[in-house]
Design a protein that fits this description.
The chain is α/β, with parallel strands linked by helices. It contains 17 helices and 20 strands. About 5% of the residues have low confidence.
């Protein structure tokens, strides 16, 4: 069985391109196979969604909600990895059942699972020069493949997109990434076969469909409020070029693996455009009397300035090396940027203000280090937070729509042993004429800026403090070459469908914990080392996921 992951792929892109003749392989599979929308997780982000894809569990049961996790009892975050995940991925279940596996590029898979074959993690592997043998499940096999075709991944693109001419150059880089990953996958398949270890399950995930949408949606979509009519043909055609290259990769991989084998194409979420408004939730909470700032300086502002100065002044590779050398300071710096400067004893609620997991924490006494809200007042304060956010509207000239579309108690969205890892209130941002607002950190050093800000024309491309011009949507894609096969109701059901397609019954014993002897990770976290944490932080900043 072949499973191809196109991170962030959306039917609103795939179908028009396929109908126009630009995606011959996907178009043929659409014509002859079965297609459906694929609802993602909440939030619809890579780490929780791919973890649900892998395990068949929702976030409250596998425990992954974002790239970072607020630490219980502290105003600090830590960087998350696959050891934080409960449940057994379908590739280790298949390997336990005697199937050989080739699994490449799935996010949230470091440390790597043990499989009979080869697993190479996605962008979360904490290595300094892209993918390295030490991060793979079989370092010797990885080294032999890389010796012939190069590594699976190279950090050759600073996705913070701050350099002049970046958008003109980045398309060629993304195209070469797809070529390199395709060559690596084909060579790994060839070497396994030559060794008499022909994989019965091959999983390959490409991240480039997500990257191109984040940076080029406004050029692709003439109706986008961030659209630049002066964009070059290179920028306007970027999405089509990347999807066409991915289509060619999909065709080559299926031809090599075997046309008769079942093939699924999956995305972890969809994509769409961003509005030209950015949202500062903590400013809104302060305006409503729910958050207070300290009077003796702003640690978060200092931390952001120190971080952003390095990112602005230093070339991308030098900046990443500098962050790696900070080692244990990586999480402390990010924690200070999110939580510094608060007057905690006068603060009832606060947000981490990350677009990857919009939410609000209640500053609960007995749970938080300086909690101010008594347990008896928890529900009342949480309702005050929800009311304050749902009453927040655009002005009449902008249509008067909701700034926050939904604000829900976490238990209405999640169940399971890890539901308390989610914020107390989970948010879904509103939209303006179909284009979603972006959550970014409040610039406390600029008091004239309110809780909702319209971007200036020179900010519309996006980047730090401005949001990306393409944003995630809740619904991804499902495409199967067999028109009569099972169709998943959501991404959580994909793992079971894959296993049943391999004549393996999913193992229900791993619904809340996992047996490390079976190749899955224990529930107890295995933190990154200081060096690894700094490398991951640098990688996430380069990807634009950390402000």
């Amino acid at each position: 069985m072949l499973v191809l992951g196109l991170d962030g792929a959306d039917w609103d892109v795939v179908r028009p391109l396929a109908n126009a003749g630009g995606l011959p392989n996907l178009a043929a599979w659409l014509r002859d196979g079965g297609a459906a929308p694929l609802p993602s997780t909440t939030p619809p982000m890579s780490f929780p969604a791919w973890s649900s894809f892998a395990t068949g569990l929702a976030p409250g049961r596998h425990g992954i909600f974002d790239f970072t996790q607020k630490q219980q009892g502290a105003y600090r975050i830590r960087f998350v990895n696959a050891a934080d995940r409960a449940g057994e991925p379908f590739w280790t279940r298949a390997s336990r059942a005697g199937r050989r596996v080739l699994c490449l590029g799935v996010p949230a898979t470091f440390p790597p699972d043990r499989v009979d074959g080869l697993l190479v993690p996605g962008f979360d592997a904490p290595v300094s020069t892209g993918s390295e043998a030490a991060a793979a499940s079989d370092p010797a096999l990885y080294s032999r493949v890389a010796a012939r075709v190069g590594p699976w991944m190279v950090p050759d693109l600073d996705e913070a997109a701050r350099a002049d001419g970046w958008h003109e150059r980045a398309v060629a880089t993304l195209l070469s990434r797809i070529e390199r990953k395709t060559a690596f996958a084909l060579e790994a398949l060839r070497q396994l076969r030559e060794a008499g270890r022909d994989p019965e399950l091959m999983v390959v995930v490409f991240a480039e469909s997500d990257t191109v949408a984040h940076h080029y949606w406004r050029d692709h979509d003439a109706a986008s409020p961030r659209h630049d009519p002066a964009a070059s043909d290179t920028r306007k055609g970027a999405l089509a070029a990347i999807y066409e290259q991915l289509d060619a990769a999909a065709g080559a991989l299926r031809a090599a693996f075997g046309e008769d084998a079942p093939c699924f194409v999956v995305s972890d979420h969809g994509q769409g455009g961003a509005s030209r408004r950015v949202v500062h939730v903590n400013r809104r909470l302060a305006d409503c009397g729910l958050l207070a700032r300290g009077t003796h300086g702003s640690l978060d502002t200092v931390a952001r300035r120190a971080r952003d100065l390095a990112l602005h002044v230093l070339p991308p590779r030098v900046a990443q090396k500098a962050f790696r050398r900070l080692r244990s300071s990586a999480a402390r710096l990010e924690s200070a940027a999110r939580f510094g400067g608060m007057a905690w004893r006068r603060t009832a609620a606060f947000s981490e203000e990350v677009n990857t997991q919009p939410g609000v924490w209640i500053n609960l006494a007995g749970r938080e280090a300086a909690g101010s809200v008594a347990r008896a007042d928890y529900e009342r304060v949480r309702r005050d937070v929800i009311d304050a956010l749902l009453e927040w509207k655009l002005d009449a000239a902008a249509g008067g729509g909701s700034v926050v579309a939904r604000a829900l108690p976490r238990e209405e969205l999640y169940d399971g042993p890890f539901a308390t890892r989610a914020p107390d209130v989970v948010l879904e941002l509103g939209h303006e004429r179909g284009y979603l607002h972006s959550l970014v950190a409040t610039p406390w050093d600029r008091p004239a800026i309110g809780a909702l800000r319209a971007l200036a024309d020179d900010e519309l491309a996006g980047g730090r403090g401005r949001g990306m011009n393409g944003t995630h949507r809740r619904t991804g894609i499902w495409l199967a070459t067999n028109p009569r096969g099972e169709r998943p109701v959501s991404i959580v059901q994909v793992a079971g469908i894959v296993l049943r397609g391999l004549a393996i019954e999913p193992d229900s014993a791993c619904d809340s914990a996992c047996d490390a002897a079976h190749g899955g990770h224990p529930v107890t976290p295995l933190p990154y080392s200081a060096e690894e944490e700094a490398r991951v932080a640098a990688r996430l900043r380069a990807l634009g996921y950390l402000e």
